[in-house]
Write a structure and sequence with these properties.
single chain; about 375 residues; mainly alpha; Farnesyl Diphosphate Synthase; 2 domains; two-stranded antiparallel ribbon; flat; metal-binding; magnesium
Length: about 375
């Protein structure tokens, strides 16, 4: 595996995009999917006595949503936290660890389903969002009441079920071992920080707060901690890693996770919907606090360009923006050098994150995987 060393990205040019995929272990995403499939197969029968409609409408759709997959980024980082912490790559212990880290995907299903409800997103991963599916089922079944309200309400329940079953999957994976106690703290923190980050995102939108400190705080809680830092800590704790290894992984994870979110912000304006599976400009339409917009507004003020500042402020939170409008905003942000500033910040975070690995007591296999994952996080297409 080719390592991406600090300084390997030329600061004078934009970050190159790389194809989607898992550079850490090409078979890991498939292994996670098998673990999830096994869990749903076992639980599907257990849910049936409750009510066949619940099994058919909520469980089946949650299963399809989860297995349809995504980047499996959280189990991937958790797995390499396990390996960096000294956990083996094969054998019964590794199999249990793989099942445990796969449970993180159910937390992610909860987060995505409910995030789509809060944002009113029409699609997810190139398919109708789950609340839209339920609304359409309501319409096609000629049911009473509001299809939109029904769809959103049932989607919230599906998200709640995913969060509850994440705990169940973790318990099943670690039953009869002392590892459940080891991972209790990062598991609890991860769930709480995911919800706190979502709240701060909503609160910032309500306050029309697109300041740089707020944007970075939301990125830190909503993505960096929940998606990278805590999964790494979870995997390392599962392996019984020492405090020095855990600290190095968390510091690396905070930097790389923040860079991951900043790449997401760029993809939200400049990405290809065919690759990302979602429309461009949704963050702008919803008034989300992103570093890209915050820097753009600051640069407009510094440049003494009230017209540019007014254009950006008028776009933020405007649900009627067309794709052409979004592209015009993107061009304006380029003119203000906001995109290049975000990319420079990503490069600095990448270098800082990789520096935390340099002196850590990790095996070469884990170090190389984490190095490749860091590079992928800041140069991905989706």
């Amino acid at each position: 595996m080719a390592a991406i060393r600090p300084g390997a990205l030329d600061p004078a040019r934009p970050l190159a995009a790389v194809p989607p995929g898992d550079p850490g272990d090409p078979g890991l995403a498939e292994s996670v999917a098998r673990c999830l499939n096994d869990f749903f197969t076992a639980r599907r029968g257990a849910a049936d006595p409750t009510d066949p409609r619940f099994d058919g409408e909520v469980v089946a759709r949650l299963e399809r949503f989860t297995l349809l997959g995504g980047k499996r980024i959280r189990p991937t980082f958790a797995w390499w936290g396990w390996r960096a912490g000294g956990g083996p790559g094969s054998g019964p212990g590794a199999a249990a660890a793989l099942r445990a880290v796969s449970a993180l995907e159910l937390i992610q299903s909860c987060a995505l389903i409910q995030d789509d409800v809060m944002d009113g997103s029409p699609t997810r991963r190139g398919q109708p969002a789950l609340h839209r599916e339920y609304a359409e089922a309501h319409r096609s079944g000629s049911l009473r009441g509001s299809p939109r309200r029904y769809g959103e309400s049932v989607a919230v329940l599906a998200g709640d079920l995913a969060l509850a079953w994440a705990d169940d999957m973790l318990d099943d994976a670690l039953d009869g071992t002392d590892r459940r106690a080891r991972v209790r703290a990062p598991w609890r923190a991860m769930r709480t920080e995911m919800i706190a980050g979502q709240f701060l995102d909503l609160h910032a939108q309500a306050q029309a707060d697109v300041s740089e400190p707020t944007a970075l705080r939301v990125a830190r809680l909503k993505t960096a901690a929940y998606s990278v830092e805590r999964p790494l800590e979870f995997g390392a704790a599962l392996a019984g890693a020492g405090s020095g290894a855990v600290a190095a992984l968390r510091s690396y994870g905070s930097d790389v996770g923040t860079a991951y979110q900043l790449r997401d912000d760029l993809l939200g304006v400049y990405g290809d919907p065919a690759a990302t599976g979602k429309p461009i400009g949704d963050d702008i339409r919803e008034g989300k606090p992103t570093l890209l917009l915050a820097i753009g507004l600051r640069r407009a003020r510094e440049r003494g360009d009230p017209a540019a500042a007014d254009t950006l402020r008028g776009a933020v939170g405007d649900p009627g923006l067309t794709d052409a409008d979004v592209r015009a905003v993107g061009a304006l942000l380029d003119d203000l050098a906001a995109r290049s500033a975000v990319e420079a910040h990503m490069r600095a975070l990448l270098d800082s994150g990789l520096a935390h690995l340099a002196g850590a007591p990790f095996a070469a296999t884990a170090r190389d995987a984490l190095t490749a994952l860091a590079g992928h996080a800041v140069a991905r297409l989706r």
